[in-house]
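Good morning C.,

I know you're traveling, so I'll keep this short. The sequence:
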Amino acid sequence: MNEPNRSLREIPLQPLHEARGARFGAFAGFRMPIQYPDGLRAEHLHTRTAASLFDVSHMGQFRVRARDGRRETLHAQLEAALPLDFADWPDGQQRYSLLLNDAGGIDDDLMLVHAVDGEGAEVRIVANAGNRDADLARLRALCPALAIDEIDAALVALQGPQAEAALSSLDRDCASMRFLQARTLELLGARCFTTRSGYTGEDGFEISLPPDRAREIVERLLADPRVRLAGLGARDTLRLEAGLPLHGNDIDARTTPAESGLAFAIPKSRRTGGAKAGGFPGARVVLQQLADGAPRRLVGLVSHEPVPIRAHAPIVDDAGRTVGEVTSGTVSPTLGHPVMLARLDSDVLGGDAEAALRALVRERRLPVQRVALPFVPKRYRR
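The C-alpha cells, ready to paste straight into the viewer:
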C-alpha cells in the first residue's frame, strides 16, 4: 500500500479500505483506492458477473434550493445555467447534463435529481471530483437566487447484475426502482439517498451515506458473498467498455457536446426552434454545431493487435497525417483486445479514409477499426 501523501484529501471510509488491503493512488486531489489484492482484472470481471462496491466519495454532492422557496425560481435559475428543461422532468428522476463555458466547451458533466421524495423544491447534483470546487463556485455565480450547499456524506456505487439482490437484503424498496430513478432508502435505520445509476454500464445503485453510519452499512453489504470491493482502476475499464466518456480524458473545457457524442444532453426544447431555445452558456456554438456538424468527433476504435493502445496515441491516415488522438484506451478484460475512445477529424470518418486508420505506438503503426459504441452492451434496469 502506498504511503499517504499529506497534501491529498481523504475519504470517510479510508480506514476500511486500508484494512482491506487497498492500493492507493492520487486522483483529483484525493487519496483513493485504485485496486485491492485480487487485482483490477478480477474486480472488473466480478462486477460483470456479481456485484462490486466502489467508493466514489471524492465526487461532489450538492443540494440546490431557491432562496425564496419557489420551485419556479429554482427551475428558471438552473435553466439559465445549464441546458435543462424542467417542464417534463418528474420528481425523483435523475438526468445527465453539462456545465458549459461560453465557447461551448464542457467544463463538467453532471448528474442531477429533480426534487427529493416530494420534500419541496430541491435538486441534487453529483459533480466530478476534480471539478467540484470550481463547479460550486461557477453555479453559485450563475444562480445567485439559489442556495447551493455541499452535502456531507460518503458516496458508494454498488454495481453489477447482483446489486439489486444484495441491496434488497437491507431495503426491498430498491427492487421497484428503475434506471435513473431516485429514492431515499432505509439502510440499517439510516436514511440514504439512492439513485439507480452508476458509471460502469452495469445495473446498480449510487448510495449517499451519512458519514457516521457509512462503515457499518458498507461492511454489511460486503458481508454478502456476492459483493466485493473494487477500485477506481476497474471502474475506469468498465466505463470505457460501456463507451462512457470521462471528464479530463475524453471530454473537457475545449470539447463540445456535438464533438463528444453528447447531443442527447441538449433537450429539443433548448435547441433552435424549441420553446426554450438557447439561453444557456455556450448556446451559440453548441446550437450551430448541432445544426451543421462538428469538425471532430469522439468515436470508438478497436484493435486486434496484441499491444495496448493508451491515451494520447496519435491516429494517422494512410498518408501518415495525424487525424486524431486516442483519449482513453485499455485492453478490454471482457473482450480480450484493445478498445479505445478517440477524437478524430470528421472528414476521415466513412469510406476509404476510415479504413486506413492506424494508431502510432512506439513507432509502430497498428491498424484500428471504428465500431459502434458501447463496446460491451449496457445492462441498465429500465
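Safe travels,
E.
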